[in-house]
Write a structure and sequence with these properties.
four-stranded mixed β-sheet, 34% helix, TIM Barrel
Amino acid sequence: MNAAGPVSHRDFLGHRGRRPKVEWPGGARVCVSFVLNFEEGAELSIADGDERNEFVYEAVEEVRGAADPCMASHFEYGPRAGFDRILDLLESYGVRATVSTCARAAERAPALIAEAAARGHEIACHGYRWERHAGMDPEREAAIIARTMDSLSRIAGVAPVGWHTRSAASENTRRLLCEHGGFLYDSDAYNDDLPWLVRPAGSPHVVLPYSFDTNDMRFAPGGGFVFGADFARYCADAFDCLRTEGAEHPKMMSVGLHQRIIGRPGRIDGLRRLLDHMTTRGGAWFATRRDIARTWRDLQGLGPWAARPRDVPLDRRDDA
C-alpha cells in the first residue's frame, strides 16, 4: 500500500515471457475482426426518458433540458441508410462482422438484427442502453446484463456469447458476465494484440481486446480522420505492421465501424479501400469474435465451450 491507498492489480506484461502458440486457420498471420456497432436508438435521449441527451456526434450543438430531434435524426441515419451499405460491402468481400448491439436499439429495429443474424453475422451484446457501467451498483448491472441477453436472444433467434461495455466497464462487469453463465468472451480491454484468458468465476473466460484507434469514431472532431482515405491508410498501416510481425507470431486486429459514421457515402470508400488492401496483401483470417474466442480456447487446449445452465451453482461447474 502506498500513501494514496491500495494499488489495484494491473498486468503490464501480458504474454511476455510466456508467449502462447498461435495458429490461426489457414496459417493466417493476422486474425481480423470487423465490429459493426449497432447503437442507434439506444443513445441517451430525454425524449426516451433518459437523464440527458447524447452529445457525441460530429459538430452538433448540445441540447440540455429538452428533447433533441436533430440529434435523434443524425442517429437514425445509421439503420435507415448505413446498415445495408456497410453489410453489403463486407459481404462482397466474404467478410462477416460481429454486430455489437445495444438491446434497446435492437428493440426499435428488430428486423435489422434478425436479418444480420440470418446473413451470417454474429450478434453480440453492447449493453441495454448505450451507456457506461463504471460505478454501477452490481445488482443493477447484473439485471442489465440479463435483460440485454434475453432481449437479443429473442430478436436474433440465437443467444449472444459476447459482451462489450460502452467505453467504461465497472469493476464487477467481467465477474457478473461469468456468473451469468451465457458469455464466452468480452471485449472490455484495449491493451494487447492477442486474446487472453481470465478466471473471475473459476472457469476460463476469453478476453478479446478491442481498439479505439483502428475505428471510424476517429472521424469525430479532433479524432484525426478527415476523409475515407485517412481511415483506410491508418488501418492498412496497422494491418501491415501486424502482418509483418505475424510471420513469426500471429496477431489479432479489431476494426470498429458505426452505421452513422463509416456508413455515410463520403466515407464508405475508406472501408472499401481497406478491404482491398487486406485481401490483396493476404495473410488475413476474417472472423467474427465468437469464432476467434472459440478458436482461442481450442489453442489453449480447453476444448468446446457451452453456456452454463442458469440453475447450476458456480461451485459445481465443470466446463473447463
